[in-house]
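Need tokens for this chain, all 113 residues.
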Amino acid sequence: MSIPYAELSWLIKGWITEHPYQTALHVVNGVVLLTPAAATILILSTLGFTSVGPAAGSTATAAMSYFGFVPAGGVIATLQSAAMGGYGAGVAAGAAQAGAVVSSAVGYLWGRK
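Here are the structure tokens for all 113 residues:
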């Protein structure tokens, strides 16, 4: 199927008008895919993993207190490392990008008629 170039912008605008939530989802996922730090820094800091260590009274410190021992290379240590820009940053970025791809695919499939 050939689409005339002159009509392309109208088709895109029409799709955006008909699917505003899907459009927002795809835009946000595109930002996360291209700059995963946009999501990882926000999520990690919300959980209490900061660049200077765990924030007092946060979910991060509650988890550390609950488990009592945080092994090197474990989930909590990797999340803290990601927040501090260490070895966990690549893991967190990859997870955010994978989540964005899956989320866009699910959003696309769910919105199909």
